[in-house]
Design a protein that fits this description.
The chain is α+β, with helices and mostly antiparallel strands and 354 residues long. The protein is built from 11 helices and 10 strands. Helix content is 37%, strand content 18%.
Length: 354
């Protein structure tokens, strides 16, 4: 028996039982409290400031050390608030590529408890990679990718767009300013979906809910993203929803997608494509009739998906035209049965390419 088939066989036998044993009980009172992410959640893009030793952040971006910073924001009642947080760089490739990598902001537990929040301390934040023209739009395109997946399914990570100013403690150093966004913590998403996050060492795509995995893989195809891999949970979170027999995959990190089309993005090395804008399907093999519900879901959401890109107020003209056109190309493909057969239905099993 091949390794992938054996893994799927074992998952089919043991995983449902393990998940049934770990079915979540009613939430304790402590988990009914609001979270810091919910506290910061706003329909618009509020302005926030992080004051820290900016040079130290850049100098130690390859490390894993927190440094203190002042975090200033307006709460929902319009009151200016300030709290001392800890900040450290995160991510892998962007630490090497970016002047300013994504960061993790850790709030003091005593601050959270005193303000009646859950003790979920850390929030991940995607910030402008370089303080140069064009890079702010990359942040906005990646943020838009998260929002597109929200339109397709609520089994997705929420985000909060902000206008962020990095203020340095050295008055002679230049500050950086631009759009950034917070990502909902995995444990908070799990609470919202009445689920729990699983961290298996290895997991097969065949061990995930088929319907949800098809939505995930077609979404990644839609945005031209190949920077994900289920087996080692690369840019995929695995969550088990209470009552379900199999877990789901939840995607994140879309800066290497054709939709974001950053200047530093590259397609996955294991695939024979030369440009991230080339769509390459990484889903599983299904019968044509099994694809019909997923294809209909995407087609039904077409006006909302394209409408978001057309109406997103922070896109410049180039980003608006590019993202809209990129999605329209995808839907033109869905309207062509021959292309659907060639590029999706028959182009399957690539998820197992290593």
């Amino acid at each position: 028996m091949k390794q992938s088939a054996l893994l799927s066989f074992l998952l089919g036998i043991f995983l449902p039982g393990l998940l049934a044993q770990s079915a979540t009980a009613p939430l304790p009172d402590s988990l009914r409290l609001p979270t810091m992410f919910q506290h910061l959640f706003h329909e618009n893009a509020p302005t926030m400031t992080i004051e820290l030793d900016f040079e130290q952040l850049l100098r130690e971006k390859e490390g894993n050390i927190y440094q203190p910073a002042k975090f200033q924001y307006l709460d929902k009642s319009g009151v200016q608030r300030e709290v001392t947080v800890d900040v450290k760089p995160k991510g892998r490739s962007r630490r090497k590529i970016c002047d300013i990598p994504p960061i993790k902001v850790r709030f003091p537990r005593e601050f959270l408890v005193a303000n009646g929040f859950q003790p979920i301390q850390a929030l991940e934040m995607v910030v402008i990679c370089k303080d140069e023209p064009g890079y702010e739009q990359y942040v906005l395109r990646e943020y838009a990718a998260y929002r597109l997946y929200n339109i397709l399914t609520d089994k997705s990570l929420r985000t909060q767009l902000v206008k962020l100013k990095f203020k340095t403690t050295d008055e002679q150093e230049k500050s950086a300013e631009g759009f950034a966004f917070f990502i909902e913590p995995f444990e908070e998403m799990a609470q919202r979906l009445h689920s729990q996050i699983l961290k298996p060492t290895r997991i097969s795509p065949k061990g995930l809910q088929p319907r949800e995995f098809d939505v995930l893989s077609l979404f990644e195809f839609m945005i031209g993203n190949t920077d994900w891999y289920v087996y080692n949970r690369h840019n995929i979170a695995v969550a088990h929803i209470q009552g379900d027999s199999l877990p789901i995959g939840v995607p994140y990190d879309f800066d290497y997608s054709g939709f974001a089309h950053t200047s530093y993005s590259l397609p996955a090395e294991r695939l024979k494509i030369s440009n991230v804008t080339t769509r390459y399907f990484l889903g599983l093999c299904r019968r044509p009739e099994d694809w019909e519900p997923t294809l209909k879901l995407f087609q039904s959401k077409k006006p909302e998906l394209i409408g978001f890109c057309k109406q997103f107020p922070h896109f410049d003209k180039e980003s608006r035209q590019y993202t809209t056109g990129y999605l329209e190309d995808f839907f033109d493909l869905l309207d062509n049965p021959k292309k659907v057969e060639e590029q999706i239905v028959e182009h399957c099993g690539a998820a197992f390419i290593k």
